Amino acid sequence: MFDLNPAAAQMQRLVSGVREEQLDRPTPCSDWTVGDLLAHINQFATVFAQNARKEQVRPPESLPDDWRQAIPARLGDLSRAWSQETAWQGRVAAGGIEMDAEDNAVVAIEELTVHGWDLARATGQDLRVDDTRLDLVDRFFELFGEEPFGPAAQAPDGTPRLERTVARTGRDPRWSPRAAQEIRIRPETPADVEAIRDLTTAAFDPVPYSDGSEPQIIDRLRADGDLAISLVAEDPSGRMIGHIAFSPVTAGNAARGWYGLGPVAVDPGRQGEGVGRALIEAGLAALKKFGASGCALVGDPGFYTRFGFSGGALSYQDMEPSLVQHLVLDDLAPDDADAPPAGELRFPKAFDVAAEGGS
């Protein structure tokens, strides 16, 4: 057994220190805003408390209006639940994985520590974590592997232990809100083609499910006249750090005017800083501006639902239906337009490059 109360109490302090005007600001965590991060903290506090009690309770999915009171209360409940000896007995299921109760407490410590760092960095608060707790976070990596969230970020020599720890989760230990906010989004120009190709290659190279065809897909979309929207993200020096493509698709039985999102790529050294979110939001805004009916994609529901996407209505090859996401964009459409399109999602021929082995 170990004491979760110091970590939970520290998170309570951090949550209480968030200001309303900070809710829309970026965080180091997977393109989440501060509001998104608070919603996640509220959710995992509920889940870990119920795991300690071996209960089944549906966790909240969105940030409550009274978050400033509700989240600290849930964190206090988490701490009390794990103070009972029965919490450490038996096995629990978390994220679809069954594990010993003590291992689940290790996951809770990792979440409290890493997301505490996210929240502190995003909102300008102080965070200090002792070696005893960081030793417990090390146990998390022993249990789930060195890169459970994808490739680790680089931590320069002399980086403090807490920042070295968060770098193991793929976060940039040098992340700052100012750097995340200094992003310029603009349409591609002919001079960008080679840089887009190089950026996309670098971004997808470490991705296990990628076959390396993404740069060729973009090139062929452009050559076929199907690259409807192509946006790049630049840092203050003008260096390209992200790219997103949109192309016309057939979304089941939906009328014309639907577009597919992707590929989207972010420089590996700038991932987790809000670049992807900025590109997606700018792209969706551009689609709305010229009257698109909707947008569809194949991707992680946990990420894309924050932009309003939902799954289960469209199909694509043999993909799990929840991965095939759609979003209705036409606010002036008939009253029944919110009904999701049904049927098969079909992308332009450029996407056949993947099936052809990237040729």
UniProtKB/TrEMBL annotation:
Question: What SUPFAM superfamilies does the record tag this protein with?
Answer: Acyl-CoA N-acyltransferases (Nat), DinB/YfiT-like putative metalloenzymes
Q: Which domain of life is it from?
A: Bacteria
The N-acetyltransferase domain covers which part of the protein? 183-334
Q: Which GO terms describe its molecular function?
A: acyltransferase activity, transferring groups other than amino-acyl groups; metal ion binding
Recorded hits in PROSITE patterns, A to Z, give: GNAT (PS51186)
User: What PANTHER family does the record point to?
Assistant: L-AMINO ACID N-ACETYLTRANSFERASE (PTHR43617), UPF0039 PROTEIN SLL0451 (PTHR43617:SF2)
User: What protein am I looking at?
Assistant: TIGR03086 family protein
